[in-house]
Design brief:
Strand order of the largest sheet: 1-2-3-4-5-6-7
Strand content: 5-15%
Structural class: alpha/beta
Shape: globular
Number of helices: 11
Number of strands: 7
Helix content: 40-55%
Radius of gyration: 18 Å
Bound molecules: NADP nicotinamide-adenine-dinucleotide phosphate
Largest sheet: 7 strands, parallel
Amino acid sequence: MCYRHIDTAAAYFNEREVGEGIRRAGIARKDVFIETKIWITDYGYDATLHAFEKSVGKLGVDQLDLLLLHQPLGSAFDRTLDAYRALEKLLADGKVRAIGVSNFMPNHLTRLLAETSIVPAVNQIEVHPYFQQTTLQRMHAEHRILTQAWSPMGGITSYGGGEKSTFDDPTLSQIAQQHGKSTAQVMLRWHRQEGRSAIPKSTKAERIAENFDVFDFEFSSEQIAAIDALDTGVRSGPEPDSITLDNYGIKIPEA
Ligand SMILES: NC(=O)c1ccc[n+]([C@@H]2O[C@H](COP(=O)([O-])OP(=O)(O)OC[C@H]3O[C@@H](n4cnc5c(N)ncnc54)[C@H](OP(=O)(O)O)[C@@H]3O)[C@@H](O)[C@H]2O)c1
């Protein structure tokens, strides 16, 4: 088993542990892809440049593979744009290998594309069978932005005892049975077959191995259509514009 792509964020408060885990794994830096995110309290040109130093300091690396803005700050979008301009500078200086955004909706992307120079490589957004954001995904395709699915197996649909879990979905269970796979594997294969990046999470070694084992089967177009048809259009995560400095203004510590 060889996961080589780690998604973390300043606001997860685990960058130090991620760095330590990578070092303990004994793999070469070039063989692991490290992605992290700047939190909204660190938006603004100089603040974001400093936030990069905080993140690499905690991770214990010199360069990041991908650096994202974690959220659009709809209530202070000029600051969001300045933060993105700082990412552009870090890219130009070779301190990050790619830059992108997360939870940007079409209106945020439209302004970003109009007012900055570099098209984001990635928009990391909530995508799982119950919430697919197809209009936004089409916009990504037009601009050659990679859709990266967070909660790719719909974990967020069952956190806090949500009533309808993707893992128990009858359509997914039926397709899983047809391939001798689990519903988790069906969802991960679906992302792969539709060309998305997916960042599954598990705390359990056997599930981590299971979630990696998705490269030896393929869906028919009917099976893909059946999964696509599960979209409810209902978001489980927070509405991006509901996130403000007042309600999510957590401070990110120094390295
Ligand atoms: N950009 C953002 O705003 C944002 C927001 C949320 C998440 N994310 C990113 O997305 C990643 C994944 O999201 P997520 O954790 O919300 O959702 P997820 O990966 O879709 O689901 C994780 C949940 O599913 C369970 N699970 C994992 N593998 C399973 C399997 N094979 N069978 C049954 N259950 C399984 C996990 O439990 P166990 O741990 O007990 O296995 C956990 O409860 C996060 O780690 C984070 O990096 C980003």
